[in-house]
Amino acid sequence: MSDLEKVNGLGPKTIKKLNDLSINSIEDLLLCFPKSYKIQKKTPIEQVKINQVVSIDVEVLSKATIFFFRKNLSKLTFKAQSQGQSFRIDIFNRHYLSSQIYPSVKLVVTGRFKERFNAFTASDIVLEKNYEEGIIAQYQLGDINDGRIKKVIHQLLIDNILINETLPKELLVSRKLEPINQLIRYIHIPNDEMELSRAIYRLKYEELILFALRIELIKGLQKSSQSFIKHYNIDLVKDFIKEIGFELTKGQKEATNEIFRDLRSSKQMNRLLQGDVGSGKTIVAVLASLAVVSAKSQVAIMAPTLVLAHQHYLVFEKYLKTYNVNIALLTSESPAKEKRQILSDISNHKIDIIIGTHALIQENIEFLNLGLAIIDEQHRFGVEQRKKLRQKGYYPDLLLMSATPIPRSLAISIFESSDISQITEKPLGRKSIITKVYEYSQIKSIYQLIRLEINLNHQVYVVCPLIEESQNSNRFSTEEVYQLLSKKFDPNLMDILHGKLSDKDKIKILNRFQKNQIKILVSTSLIEVGVHVDNATTMLIMNANTFGLAQLHQLRGRIGRSDLQSYCCLIVDDGLEDLDRLSILENTDDGFKISEYDLKLRGPGEVFGNNQAGVPKFNFANLIEDEALLKNALKDAQKIISSEDKKSKELYDKVFQTIESYHLD
Ligand code: ADP
Ligand code: MG
To answer: Which biological processes are named by the entry's GO terms (predicted)?
Structure first.
């Protein structure tokens, strides 16, 4: 029985809902903090500036008119006045409010005057009598009403229910953190912004100290696990480099040197190779593989999609054909007989390099001498999958490749690796992609661009968030967009690509696109990696705001792969508010900058997926903005690890249990 049953105002139904959210006790409830706060304050109209987001009192002057753009997309417009100043108010996708809007109704509207004081674009509208000024906590506990939860928690606070401190006293003092019961008061019912910021400061610190403890513990555990030294043939590699056909960039050379140093050391390599899309990571992987093969060891290369694995296979074949290296491709669609042959050839080392998808860890592969495991687009794999590949050999060296740069602290936490190589420049001669955000109503001008590019014999990708139309979403599907475009362009020159097609069909379509038999390829984000068609110069991304920045950047990496000028059109619904985020893509094509910005805005959980072990769940802290605080936390973590204090030990144990790989390996 839980003590929640004793709480006034909580019935069995609500308790059940709370339990489903892992809130099982009064203490859990007190520690269930608001997800966000709204600071509600009205601004008198005479103080409002252009483009400033404000809430103002208005009186409605006219009935509302509704315009529909597409399915579920609408604009509601009416006239209003504030202090004798009259203007138009527009709000998107709230057509259901229309019946409540008629002359003399008093409202509070939130939004901004975008260009002039005669038109206000609202993001929110409430009846004046329902508007609550002050700091409003938002709990977002499923369908449990915020007011209900607040009432219950306030009563618990009035009853002075106390809970136990979790942080060592020393830390509270040295970092000037609020004690836990004070924190709880401030976070649930802040009297002012000062109290709220005191509370948030402690919560940020708490999140960062757990993260810092993880990092320090892993560093301590990184006992140099032994590996075989790879006695590679450096002359062979040097000859190969002369024949690649291009000069390696500075970053490629440095990364190669770092990897080669690891290969000839007796310490197991655990290196993350970061480089923007198109920076040329593959050739670095080819060099490392050739070296390992020349040292009489085998190499396994795992890629997240069949398309990419297939692409790598072609590249490796092309480069290493004349070097007497045996390369094979293994995917879940390889025919059974072929599969058996490949497995047997791997187990007696007839195959030097095996390239594949998840099949590499699913199938019963046994290597005779696995010396190097490479994982491309590593963020698409979970910790378990990476571990499984590693375990196919006796401490094989590990090379993880990624187009999304990760700060060092995160790399340690997620990959338990602090060895990072970075390729920061792109090969010479690439033109930067002209990127622009368009509202859907401007699509006609994009059709013109497509027409121009097709007339130049260039090709176009159109990326959609959905495969098929869906009842409860107004996002574009490949189906819908294909229909739309086939009214403007010859359907014989178009095709659709998505994940539900068989691998065979996917490759067939991509081959036709490669040969320029298809001009417009309507696709899901499936083309994100591994598709190389230099002649494709234009990309449309529908509902661009529904993708992450790093993903958009990766997607547009499919164009701009030659000396042709390329264009990326990010298409969003009309009237969308959060466009600032997308504008960074208009302004830079530096993936490192974009990734840092993304991380700052969305946090590591959103960017890398919370289901990856080691990705910290930050509700309050921000790795980029709170870097200074993290530095303090790292110092404190070292103290906690060596402290005898009971609370320090509890913290230490809590974190230690989350570090698994060292126990299981
Ligand atoms: P990514 O880092 O995104 O995996 P790739 O390895 O696929 O990039 O390389 C993109 C393209 O650039 C390939 O066609 C490759 O041959 C080419 N490339 C790589 N390095 C260089 C270089 N130093 N000079 C010129 N072209 C290069
Ligand atoms: Mg790549």
So the answer is: DNA repair
